[in-house]
Amino acid sequence: MSLISFAPHSGVWLLTTPHTSYALRIDASGAPCHLAWGPRLTLAAAEELAVPEPPAASSFEGRPSVGEELPVDGGVRYGPPSLQVRFADGSRAFEWQPTGHRVHESADGAHELVLFFRDRRYPLQVALHYRVRADTDVIERWTVVRNGGDEPVTLLRADSAAWTLPPLADYRLSHVTGQWSAESRLRRDRLPYGETVLTSRRGITSHHTNPWLMVDSGEATEDHGRVWSAALAWSGSWRITTQRTPDGRTGFTGGVGHDGTGVPLTPGEEFTAPAFAGLFTADGFGAASRAWHAYTLAHVLPHPDEPVPVLYNSWEATGFDVDEVGQKALAERAAALGVELYVVDDGWFGGRRSDRAGLGDWTPAPDRFPDGLGPLADRVRELGMRFGLWVEPEMVNPDSDLYRAHPDWVLHLPDRSRSELRNQLVLNFARRDVADWAYGWLTELVGAHRIDFLKWDMNRAFSEAGWPGQQDGADRLGTQYVRHLYGVIDRLRADHPGLRIESCSGGGGRIDLGILGRTDQTWASDNTDAADRLWIQHGFSQIYPARTMGCWVTDAPNQFTGRGLPLRFRFHAAMAGALGIGGDLARWSEEELREGAALVTEYKKVRHLVQHGRLDRLSPPSGQSPAVVQYTSADGSESLVLAWRGVPRPGDADLPVRLRALTPAARYRDSRTGTVHHASVLGDYGLRLDLPAGDWSSVAMHLVREPEAV
């Protein structure tokens, strides 16, 4: 059955997903116009929506700025353009002329519609792509622009797609904001009239916001209400602009780059925008999140079905003081805890003794590893663990052999200072020779030491983002940098199919669907304080699945906040994602080591629920009542409830929590206490949380469905 249908007499296209419909048509001017995005429609019902736009109320209004599939600059359009063009003769604007379409089904079962256009005057071609699948309500959209002439063209703006919402009584915008060590703070605010811009100008996805948004009428909750959302699959600078007009229209457009940059197109050159995927759900923010999680697992991650191993990372134990003897000792303690992947962090290479030198010289330090990394890697494997390594391929210290040999390899502008952040500069991955150099040493390093895992870090934003000697270098740099970054990772993984990679950028600075398409997990934040992490993880989970969220148990008091939290609380917070351990195990007491080993064992029993189950956020980390999340298997046979309480106050209510997604009429046994609960009680009346008394208490409750009585 085709998921794409067409009515030739009305020109209406209908895209169908399991629970939703998306409809559009080409109007009399040749422009592609939006009709519907929401609950399922038949083609005949969608045609009913294909009515002409009423005439403008005055000469000041112009064409509606919300409602086109890709709003362009030109004519009487006054809203934010998704496509803005400057031709060689100085002319601007774009006039739609349809030239055809294509519908096809790919080998993986996806159905794709492509609508082809050109400008009426200039040989500039535009293709609008739509992709739908039978197992998800996520609709992928992107745009391809091609210069078919013999003169250069500049794309001042070339967004992936624009999305139009139906008329609602009001609009509310959900997104995340933050900063380094305080990423993914969820915000839900009434959408103001005019334009609201979410953007990163930093060359990376950024800690400060993330390229996704959700919009509702202001009435949606975790479990109820219609929600429209979209996420951009891009790992560099980006911009999403929402617009709310006085006449009740709302939409948003998004794509690569930020204000002040452009994309040059030489004759015959083509620009392909990344996917800007959209999703409509009718059952609240929780349903939206779960749909994004399922989509990411099914269609984004390279190895979604694998269990993410419990890892140990040496950074907080050693800092830059890394050597073979010390790492072997830590590895023995990690193995005793039940760790499955041992990762050596910064400090193993070149002259790296602090963050001031050595970055870029990627050979093991001979005074610390006299026989290279081989003996350590062998010992780690003897202990039953896989071996991982921290790298930062995109950076260089000025005090390094690499920089002294290639000072022209970094981002810079002639006659401008080279700003150092964290005592380092950014290598220009837009240059093919730089990208090839990085690929070369990475594939050699991974192959020589049979490395199983790379923690790929990126510890500063762009500055002086120029490319001297390259025509239009400053404009080409942003997109080509990311394309080459993706290419290096893709080539590396093709060489080493067993290699797994974590995306890190000083914590959560590079998390998006683009990087997740070629890595296996992310480092959500450098802040490992478990209380802060509950907020960070709450925002992270709005779009991205728990399987991709690296979470560490580190020492108390925490190095960021100075807060001392119980080991069990720290473990339970980290068990909500991909569990890791980052404390100084040499300082852990025997009691802490025993408790930690028991909690690692407990996590392994339930990680299939965390990493592949359904997530329900039962209570947010508000600080007034316990924060609670629930993970449930697809068949409802098992469920894990994690709950955390901070500092209780006299009079705080101890309310039961209503569970979700259990099998009706079944009974569930708490594997920790043996208590048996009826699903009807758990779902309709609630579960009393068995939280210990005192501050910063937590509990993990594993519920297993009892066999039916014969």
UniProtKB/TrEMBL annotation:
<dbReference type="InterPro" id="IPR002252">
    <property type="entry name" value="Glyco_hydro_36"/>
</dbReference>
<dbReference type="InterPro" id="IPR038417">
    <property type="entry name" value="Alpga-gal_N_sf"/>
</dbReference>
<dbReference type="GO" id="GO:0004557">
    <property type="term" value="F:alpha-galactosidase activity"/>
</dbReference>
<dbReference type="InterPro" id="IPR050985">
    <property type="entry name" value="Alpha-glycosidase_related"/>
</dbReference>
<feature type="binding site">
    <location>
        <begin position="455"/>
        <end position="459"/>
    </location>
    <ligand>
        <name>substrate</name>
    </ligand>
</feature>
<dbReference type="InterPro" id="IPR017853">
    <property type="entry name" value="GH"/>
</dbReference>
<dbReference type="Pfam" id="PF16875">
    <property type="entry name" value="Glyco_hydro_36N"/>
</dbReference>
<dbReference type="GO" id="GO:0016052">
    <property type="term" value="P:carbohydrate catabolic process"/>
</dbReference>
<feature type="active site" description="Nucleophile">
    <location>
        <position position="457"/>
    </location>
</feature>
<feature type="binding site">
    <location>
        <begin position="345"/>
        <end position="346"/>
    </location>
    <ligand>
        <name>substrate</name>
    </ligand>
</feature>
<dbReference type="InterPro" id="IPR031705">
    <property type="entry name" value="Glyco_hydro_36_C"/>
</dbReference>
<dbReference type="InterPro" id="IPR013785">
    <property type="entry name" value="Aldolase_TIM"/>
</dbReference>
<dbReference type="InterPro" id="IPR013780">
    <property type="entry name" value="Glyco_hydro_b"/>
</dbReference>
<keyword id="KW-0326">Glycosidase</keyword>
<feature type="binding site">
    <location>
        <position position="526"/>
    </location>
    <ligand>
        <name>substrate</name>
    </ligand>
</feature>
<dbReference type="Pfam" id="PF16874">
    <property type="entry name" value="Glyco_hydro_36C"/>
</dbReference>
<feature type="domain" description="Glycosyl hydrolase family 36 C-terminal">
    <location>
        <begin position="627"/>
        <end position="703"/>
    </location>
</feature>
<protein>
    <recommendedName>
        <fullName>Alpha-galactosidase</fullName>
        <ecNumber>3.2.1.22</ecNumber>
    </recommendedName>
</protein>
<dbReference type="Pfam" id="PF02065">
    <property type="entry name" value="Melibiase"/>
</dbReference>
<feature type="binding site">
    <location>
        <position position="422"/>
    </location>
    <ligand>
        <name>substrate</name>
    </ligand>
</feature>
<feature type="active site" description="Proton donor">
    <location>
        <position position="526"/>
    </location>
</feature>
<comment type="similarity">
    <text>Belongs to the glycosyl hydrolase.</text>
</comment>
<dbReference type="InterPro" id="IPR000111">
    <property type="entry name" value="Glyco_hydro_27/36_CS"/>
</dbReference>
<feature type="binding site">
    <location>
        <position position="180"/>
    </location>
    <ligand>
        <name>substrate</name>
    </ligand>
</feature>
<feature type="domain" description="Glycosyl hydrolase family 36 N-terminal">
    <location>
        <begin position="30"/>
        <end position="265"/>
    </location>
</feature>
<feature type="binding site">
    <location>
        <position position="504"/>
    </location>
    <ligand>
        <name>substrate</name>
    </ligand>
</feature>
<keyword id="KW-0378">Hydrolase</keyword>
<dbReference type="InterPro" id="IPR031704">
    <property type="entry name" value="Glyco_hydro_36_N"/>
</dbReference>
